[in-house]
Amino acid sequence: xxxxxxxxxxxxxxxxxxxxxxxxxxxxxxxxxxxxxxxxxxxxxxxxxxxxxxxxxxxxxxxxxxxxxxxxxxxxxxxxxxxxxxxxxxxxxxxxxxxxxxxxxxxxxxxxxxxxxxxxxxxxxxxxxxxxxxxxxxxxxxxxxxxxxxxxxxxxxxxxxxxxxxxxxxxxxxxxxxxxxxxxxxxxxxxxxxxxxxxxxxxxxxxxxxxxxxxxxxxxxxxxxxxxxxxxxxxxxxxxxxxxxxxxxxxxxxxxxxxxxxxxxxxxxxxxxxxxxxxxxxxxxxxxxxxxxxxxxxxxxxxxxxxxxxxxxxxxxxxxxxxxx
Length: 325
Known about the structure:
The chain has helices at about 15-40, 45-75, 105-125, 130-160, 160-195, 195-205, 210-235, 245-260, 270-295, 300-325; strands spanning about 10, 85. The protein is mainly alpha-helical. Helix 1 runs antiparallel to helix 2, helix 2 (about 45-75) packs antiparallel against helix 4 and helix 6 packs parallel to helix 10. The protein has ten helices and two strands; from the N terminus they run βααβαααααααα. It has a two-stranded parallel sheet with strand order 1-2.
């Protein structure tokens, strides 16, 4: 049977000592994870870092109490048994090892950790028939429930309204730096820089399929170029702009989308129908860029309109004039 279980032991086959040892190792692992979260958040989110420091202290206290109970019942030699040794035991995905985690990612992971632990202890207590074992598992479940209450108390103590507003503003700023700013730059580049070649081709050839191919090539090529440029320009460590891979994808995808918006209408075989729709798409794209600049980059709407709509209109006019010449 162990061959099919990958050498792991079923929970139903664990002794009371092994169950207690498993709880000790789990509490130790969770305490270390919370400490790593606290260290990661200390600079940007000090209030939340205090929460995870307190949660790590709670886990360590639980571990101390469990070791003390083990010593009384079974002596000092604690069996070496961890999560990966038990078949069906909940696993901790190593997300805390990833380089980039947002505050919401960390809070969500912590909440999942607490739910997993409570669920495990409750299920284990329900499956045991021995009175002493049921009592032990019930105590562990109660300890986890107490940890949840402590976490709520810590949140009330450390995350007052001012702290929440500060952390929300920091989170919003990170969202803008990592996703909105490179995505907006890509959308502007894709929408504006492809106007001239697409409409020059359209009016020079009046062939919708040729125009579409030129637009597709320009959009995809610009997307690849912008994506790699953004990813290679800044690793995000000093600037705080976040993962270069995320920024590269945001910039590259939005550049491609910006160009394809007014290239796709040329899949329509009728030239003037396709061109009319493409004009409308360009109008929507340019005003959408101005709106995003105003909303997320806090650029005055009039200035954004002059920069994007008028600038894009000039590029469009140049493409039409060259294609018609």
